[in-house]
Write the structure tokens for this entry.
Amino acid sequence: MLPLLAGLVRRRRAAPYAAPVTIDAAAPVRDGASAPVVGFDLDQTLVDSGPRISSCLRAALAEVGLPFDEAVAEASRGLPLTGTLAALLPVGADPALVEDVAARYRAQDRRPDGEGGHPLVGPMPHARATLQAVVDAGGRVVVVSAKRQEAVGRVLAWAGLEDLVAAVAGDLFGVAKAGALRAEGAGAYVGDHPADVEAARAAGATAVAVATGAHGPEHLAGADEVLADLGGFPAWLARWTAAVPAH
């Protein structure tokens, strides 16, 4: 289990959030049949943060006199902040400029939800029912995101989902998520990006994709299961937990 980060969220049915640590990628995946452990991506999987991300990016770029391209930002959704900025900033941008805009973005994003003119962050449709299904099955929910650690807890709280989450890990993207998933014993990982499918594969977990982000089903075909949205997750979970040999 990852070490605990106290004081990030209130305690309810779920355990406290976890702080990122160096994780042994070879740690065995625990059997999820009797008590499923399911990992989830955050942005556009559990929370509808796209409009707020675009608003914060627009404000950060405006502060340094640069334009914002919504189409480019949309296509880059799901990437770490540095990847998104690489697409938005001029080719060959000075690394100091990249870091400056990143810091400005984070300052905008730290504003309380609804302040600074940035849109509210809410749960994706069926997100709470999805997490509740895992908890009701006696399992644990783990959120592993490319977002910074402190931002993950903050966004989950804004979306009203934090009480159903047992642990979080941030600053991880693609196969780099595998260590956190394995350390938490996740038998499945749910995400909206092809890199989330790669993360599940690297962790030895069942890959579940939801077509609620920038990528359609045709780009998520490598997953074991592709859902139109989280509305189909509880039924899938029931089938998965019943198929003991599958995990």
Observations:
- The CA atoms of residues 178 and 202 lie 6 Å apart.
